[in-house]
Design a protein that fits this description.
By secondary structure, this protein is α+β, with helices and mostly antiparallel strands. The chain has helices at 7-30, 37-51, 123-141, 149-162; strands at 54-55, 74-77, 80-82, 96-105, 108-117, 173-175, 182-186, 203-206, 209-211, 217-219, 226-228, 234-236, 239-242, 249-250. It binds magnesium ion.
């Protein structure tokens, strides 16, 4: 079911957006060579407690997970790109890290992700992150009343295809509201002018993610961590966006 939020409700979602943005910023700052993924999870956990927020991940247990997630953060390193379950791993020079974080404040959820390289970057990783960011920007710019869902998908996919990347359609964006995952599914490629008509009050997570040389994925035995099938690295960026009467409102915009 597609739910539309009133302007008042969208205002009520702002604290969740600001909080999630602050955690993503803190994680990006802390991520460095020698930092353990479990320390990043602990940092996010502490920020949740201090803010009186609620984790969307810790008890999350959809059919594909082998067990409840148990952590408050997704950390995906190198050939892992989505849903990475934080584990005892110390970041090494040149690692490509994607963090994905969702939490509720006052009963409203926000969801955001970003990729960073720690230590000495590989140029191709910086390029991959840049492509994902440009695809996100294009998707956000298409998130306007009167457009259709396919316009967002097409905007994202066009950036990726224009750079020679192929797009996986199994995992993409989603509605956000009282819970983390709602309708509609926001695919990372699609036909312009097709699909749901976008109306003010629709709040969605837009989340392009791309792999260097494949769109095929495989799951770790933990049931969560998603890796490229060919070992190539991935990047993932995400914002929670409200469609308004005017410009798209990026609720998780970072200061
Ligand atoms: Mg997310």
């Amino acid at each position: 079911m597609i739910e539309l939020r009133t302007p008042t409700q969208i205002e009520q979602m702002r604290p969740a957006g600001r909080f999630v943005a602050s955690v993503i910023s803190a994680l990006a700052e802390k991520a460095d060579v020698g930092v353990n993924l479990l320390e990043l999870d602990e940092l996010a956990h502490r920020m949740i407690k201090d803010a009186g927020a609620e984790s969307c991940y810790i008890d999350y247990h959809p059919s594909f997970g082998a067990m409840p997630f148990g952590k408050v953060l997704c950390t995906s390193v190198n050939d892992a790109v989505l849903h990475g379950l934080p584990f005892d791993y110390t970041l090494q020079d040149g690692d490509l890290l994607s963090v994905d974080f969702a939490a509720a404040v006052d009963g409203w959820v926000a969801d955001s992700a970003l990729s960073v390289v720690v230590g000495t970057p590989r140029q191709e990783d910086l390029w991959l992150i840049d492509v994902a960011q440009r695809a996100l920007d294009a998707g956000i710019d298409a998130a306007r009343a009167g457009n259709r869902l396919g316009d967002i998908s097409h905007a994202i996919g066009s950036v990726a295809r224009g750079e020679g990347l192929s797009v996986n359609l199994q995992f993409g964006g989603h509605g956000v509201g009282r819970t983390m995952h709602g309708d509609p599914h926001v695919a990372n490629d699609g036909q312009p002018g097709r699909g749901l008509k976008l109306r003010p009050g629709l709040v969605i997570a837009i989340e392009p993610w791309f792999l260097h040389s494949t769109d095929e994925i495989r799951f770790d035995p933990d049931g969560w961590t998603i890796r490229s099938a060919d070992g190539s690295r991935g990047a993932h960026v995400e914002h929670t966006v409200a469609i308004t009467d005017g410009d798209p409102l990026v609720l998780t915009a970072r200061a």
